[in-house]
Write a structure and sequence with these properties.
101 residues, alpha+beta, Nucleotidyltransferase, domain 5, 1 helix, 4 strands, flat
Length: 101
């Protein structure tokens, strides 16, 4: 009993890359990873300036009942970093994914 080989060509998935914000702007990215079996999620936030320098970052391990809840918790962590630095007073570029859809 041998192993059956897959002769299909590999699927190429384009890599996403960070795009710098304009001028004196802070760009904040957040994301979540969720395990359905354990309801444990990892959430993370990363804030960078227009030079790509990391200004702040946070991550946490949380319990979430779904992937959407995990994403929402990441957005909440994101908002706490914005409040901590009062970045609403400066230029802020935010990308929110499907959580708000």
């Amino acid at each position: 009993m041998g192993t059956k080989l897959n002769n299909n060509p590999p699927t190429i998935i384009p890599a996403s890359r960070w795009i710098r914000p304009n001028g004196n702007t802070v760009k904040i990215n957040c994301d979540a990873s969720w395990n359905e079996g354990s309801n444990i999620a990892g959430i993370a936030v990363l804030a960078r300036n227009n030079l790509g320098e990391v200004l702040d970052s946070e991550n946490a391990r949380v319990y979430a009942s779904s992937s959407r809840v995990a994403e929402a918790l990441a957005v909440r962590l994101d908002a706490s970093i914005i409040a901590k630095h009062q970045w609403w007073l400066t230029g802020l570029q935010k990308e929110l994914g499907y959580v708000l859809a």
